[in-house]
Design brief:
Distance between the termini of chain A: 32 Å
Strand content of chain B: 25-35%
Helix content of chain A: 40-55%
Strand content of chain A: 25-35%
Distance between the termini of chain B: 42 Å
Oligomer: heterodimer
Structural class of chain A: alpha+beta
Number of helices of chain B: 13
Structural class of chain B: alpha+beta
Radius of gyration of chain A: 14 Å
Largest sheet of chain B: 13 strands, antiparallel
Chain lengths: ~130, ~400
C-alpha cells in the first residue's frame, strides 16, 4: 500500500476519533480493526474506551478483540475519499469484515462520520 | 397480579393528560420495563426512539418511557401502523413511512415496542436498507421488545433478570459448541437430525454487544443452522407472524428433509396447502432448512391467551424450552442461504440430543437442573422458583396423527 494512502487513512481516522459522535459511540468499548489491504496487514485502528488510535502494520495486542477488514487499495481509497460507501463495497464483495463481538456495524458508523467530513471538506474547497 | 400504583404516578404538576395516561403503570409493569431498559444498556443522554403501534396499550409504552427517562435518556415515541391496521388496509403492507425511516438514524437505541410496527411483510426488516443505515452507518442498537402487553411486561418473564437467561444460554451453547450432531424427536413422530456448525449458533441468549447490534429482550432462544439435515418433521403449528390460515393445527404437516432440503410437504394439516403455496411462490431457496431454534426462558408463556392478539401470546410461546421451530427458507445467523421466505413451523415437548446426550428431555431443558445453574440463579432469588416452568395453557398444541 502506498505511503500516501496510509497517510490519508491515518489522518481521516484520527479526525474521526476527535468528533463528539465518535467518542460517544466508542465510549464503552475496547476493540481493534486490523486492515489487510491487498493481502497485507497494513494498519490498525484501535478503540479504547472513547479514544481512537491508528497504528501501522499488524496489531500487537490481544487477538481476541480484533476484527479483520480485508479490502484492496482502490476500494479503500474510494471509501476514504467519500466516493464509495463501505456498505456498498461490502455488497460488491470488495470489503469483507471478519467481525468479532458483533463489531462490524461500528466500523461502518465511524466511516460514515468520516465520509460526512470529507464531503464537507469538498464543499468548503469548492466554495 | 397486585395493582400497586407506582409512587409518583399521579403527577398532577404535569397536567391532566399525564395523570390519565400513567394511572395504570403498576410497580410490576415498571419492573418489567426497567428490566428491558437495563439490558438495552440505556444510559444518560442517549437518544431513544420507541416505535409503538397505534392502538397498543398506552401503559406498556409509558412504562418504557418512564424507565428510560429514569436513566437520563432522551426519549421519543413514534406511533406507527401496526399489524391490525394492515389487515384493514391491505395496500399498506410494506416498509414503515419515510418519516419513521429517517427518524431512526437519529437514535442511539431503537426499541421496537409495537406489534409489528416495523415489519415489512414478506421480508426481514433487519435486512432492509433503512435498517442497515440506522444500525450500520449510525450505530443504533435495535432492541425488539417482547413485552408487548401489560400482562407480559409485568409477568415473571418480563421481570426475570436477563443475566439468568444469558447464563442458561451460555451453558446451552457451550454444550452445542462441543457437539457434532443434533437430533430432535417428538411423540408425534418427528425424528430429524443434522450436523452442527459452531459458527452457526444464533439467537437471543447473550448480552447486547457493540453499537449496531440487535437483540430481542427478554428473548431466550437458541438457534442453529442445520447442516446436511435429514429426517421427517411433523409440524404442529405455524408462527403467527407468517399469517397462516391457522396457527395451531389439529393435524400435522409432514415435511421430509434430505440434505437440508424439504423434498416433501404433505399431510392433512390445515396449513399444508398454504405452505406448499408459499414454497411455490417463494424463491428458489424457499425449501432450504434455514434454522432450528428452541426456547430457553423458564418463565416464558402464552401471556394473554386466548384474549390477546395471537401475535402477542405467540411471542411468549417461542421462548419456551418445550417448543422448537424449524424454518423453511432464509438462513438466520451465519447460515448464508438467502431467501425471501422464512417460515417457522413448531413442534412441542421435543427431545433434543447433542451427540446422543439429552439437552432437552420431552420439553424440559436439562440445564435448568444443573447445580451450577441453580447456584447462579440463587443470586437473584429462590432457584426453585426462578427456574421452574409454568405448564403450557390448555388448547394450544393439540395435533393428533391418525
Amino acid at each position: 500500500m502506498e505511503q500516501e494512502l496510509m497517510k490519508v487513512a491515518s489522518d481521516l481516522f484520527v479526525r474521526i476519533g476527535k468528533t463528539e459522535e465518535c467518542r460517544r459511540k466508542i465510549d464503552d468499548y475496547e476493540h481493534t480493526y486490523q486492515f489487510e489491504v491487498d493481502g497485507k496487514p497494513e494498519f490498525y485502528v484501535e478503540l479504547n474506551r472513547g479514544r481512537l488510535k491508528v497504528g501501522s502494520g499488524e496489531y500487537p495486542g490481544e487477538y481476541t478483540k480484533v476484527s479483520l477488514v480485508k479490502t484492496d487499495s482502490g476500494t479503500l481509497r474510494a471509501i476514504l475519499k467519500g466516493k464509495l460507501r463501505p456498505l456498498d463495497a461490502s455488497t460488491q464483495g470488495k470489503w469483507v469484515i471478519r467481525a468479532r463481538n458483533y463489531s462490524g456495524e461500528l466500523l461502518y458508523t465511524l466511516l460514515r462520520i468520516g465520509r460526512e467530513m470529507v464531503i464537507e471538506d469538498l464543499l468548503a474547497a469548492q466554495a | 397480579m397486585t395493582e400497586k400504583l407506582v409512587l409518583g404516578a399521579s403527577l398532577e404538576d404535569e397536567g391532566s393528560g399525564a395523570v390519565s395516561q400513567m394511572k395504570g403503570v403498576t410497580l410490576e409493569l415498571l419492573q418489567g420495563a426497567r428490566n428491558l431498559i437495563k439490558y438495552a444498556r440505556i444510559k444518560e443522554q442517549m437518544e431513544v426512539a420507541i416505535v409503538a403501534s397505534r392502538g397498543q396499550d398506552d401503559d406498556v409504552i409509558n412504562a418504557i418511557v418512564i424507565a428510560a427517562e429514569e436513566m437520563g435518556a432522551h426519549v421519543t415515541v413514534i406511533r406507527a401502523r401496526g399489524r391490525t391496521e394492515r389487515y384493514d388496509f391491505p395496500g399498506l403492507l410494506e416498509d414503515p413511512s419515510r418519516v419513521v425511516q429517517k427518524a431512526l438514524t437519529g437514535a442511539d437505541v431503537i426499541i421496537e415496542a409495537g406489534i409489528r410496527s416495523m415489519y415489512a411483510l414478506g421480508g426481514r426488516y433487519m435486512d432492509r436498507e433503512y435498517m442497515k443505515i440506522a444500525r450500520s452507518e449510525y450505530g443504533a442498537f435495535l432492541i425488539r421488545s417482547e413485552l408487548l402487553s401489560k400482562e407480559t411486561m409485568s409477568s415473571e418473564f418480563g421481570r426475570l433478570p436477563c443475566d439468568v437467561v444469558y447464563e442458561i444460554g451460555r451453558r446451552v451453547v457451550s454444550m452445542i459448541e462441543q457437539g457434532k450432531t443434533a437430533r430432535v424427536t417428538t411423540a408425534l413422530g418427528t425424528d430429524i437430525s443434522f450436523n452442527l456448525n459452531p459458527r452457526g449458533i444464533m439467537g437471543s441468549f447473550r448480552p447486547l454487544n457493540m453499537p449496531g447490534d440487535m437483540l430481542a429482550i427478554p428473548g431466550g432462544r437458541v438457534g442453529l443452522n442445520p447442516e446436511h439435515g435429514y429426517g421427517i418433521l411433523y409440524a404442529e403449528a405455524i408462527a403467527a407472524s407468517q399469517d397462516p390460515p391457522r396457527v395451531f393445527m389439529t393435524k400435522p404437516i409432514k415435511i421430509v428433509w434430505d440434505d437440508n432440503w424439504a423434498v416433501e410437504i404433505s399431510g392433512e394439516g390445515e396449513c399444508t396447502e398454504w405452505l406448499v403455496q408459499m414454497m411455490e411462490t417463494g424463491d428458489r431457496n424457499s425449501r432450504w432448512w434455514g434454522e432450528c431454534m428452541f426456547g430457553i426462558h423458564p418463565k416464558s408463556n402464552a401471556f394473554g391467551y386466548p384474549s390477546a392478539p395471537v401475535e402477542v401470546y405467540f411471542t411468549g410461546i417461542h421462548s419456551r424450552p418445550d417448543t422448537l421451530h424449524n424454518a423453511l427458507g432464509h438462513s438466520s445467523g451465519a447460515g448464508g442461504v438467502v431467501s425471501n421466505r422464512h417460515i417457522d413451523s413448531f413442534v412441542h415437548n421435543q427431545t433434543v440430543y447433542i451427540d446422543g446426550d439429552k439437552l432437552i428431555d420431552n420439553g424440559h431443558l436439562v440445564v435448568l437442573d444443573d447445580p451450577g445453574m441453580r447456584e447462579f440463579a440463587s443470586r437473584y432469588g429462590d432457584p426453585d422458583q426462578l427456574l421452574r416452568m409454568s405448564p403450557m395453557p390448555e388448547g394450544l398444541f393439540k395435533c393428533r396423527r391418525d
